[in-house]
Amino acid sequence: MQLTVSGLPVFIYTARQTFAPAQPVVVLLHGAAHDHSVWNFQARHLAHHGFSVLAPDLPGHGRSGGAPLASIEALADWLAALLDAAGVRQAAVAGHSMGSLVALQAAAQFPDRFTQLILLGSVAPMPVAAPLLSAANDDRPTAHAMINQWSYTFASQLGASAVPGTSLTGLNRRLMERQDDAVLATDLGACNAYEGGLAAAGAVRCPTLLLCAERDQMTPRRAVKPLHEALAGVADGARMISIPRAGHAMLAEAPDAVGNAIRSFLTRN
Q: Is residue 185 part of a domain?
């Protein structure tokens, strides 16, 4: 599906289903230098369990037009505009890594628009290591190698995959290579500069789930504690689930566990 948001074309994956805004809607937001395709497994799972799925390519990513937006706050504003363009009054929103910060900010800034919030691989603040920021600007192949090393478990780096015959690190490298030159540096810069995460968490009131991967090196579970505590205003407290045997790239390394956790949360609330 393609929409126009703020005058620019936006590609949205709907899991090959006709989008039906009258059904429960869930928005799936990808992370830095990615596109909608990282959500393919979970999007199809949710679409076949009664949800209308919107998995957009963020501005300047994948098949969406324009330049990448340079701040999390700007992306949150864009997300609200996306819902308007899709004719959606309210939706659940899930975001992975950078996408989780966008989802968090949007849920705090537009509380009447979001019914449930799911944060995957999320911490606040989300500082980015200086060598990775530098490589993203000056040496993208090295930056891609760093991201693969820190995002995937050792087993995945040796070739293990939930889809036999598929190289998860190879797919991720090609996905990042397909983005325009400025995308990775812009995305990582936005994550690194975002200072409003804990304040936003304090303003969230909708039911919230934190999904943490057991072997995440980029946003390890111990670093999630400040965010979890800041979500104290959520009714009954924010829930936290650990995804076993997966790293930061949990969408690819544990697709079934992630999809089942998201669906269980959405149908429970």
A: no
Q: Number of folded domains in the chain?
A: 1
Q: 3-state SS string over the chain?
A: CEEEECCEEEEEECCCCCCCCCCCEEEEECCCCCCHHHHHHHHHHHHCCCCEEEEECCCCCCCCCCCCCCCHHHHHHHHHHHHHHHCCCCEEEEEECHHHHHHHHHHHHCCCCEEEEEEECCCCCCCCCHHHHHHHHHCHHHHHHHHHHHHCCHHHHCCCCCCCCCCHHHHHHHHHHHCCCCHHHHHHHHHHHCCCHHHHHHHCCCCEEEEEECCCCCCCHHHHHHHHHHHHHCCCCCEEEEECCCCCCHHHHCHHHHHHHHHHHHHHC
- Domain membership flag for residue 180: no
Residues above pLDDT 70, as percent of the chain: 100
pLDDT tens-digit readout, 85-134: 999 999 999 999 999 999 999 999 999 999 999 999 999 999 999 999 99
Domain-located, residue 251? yes
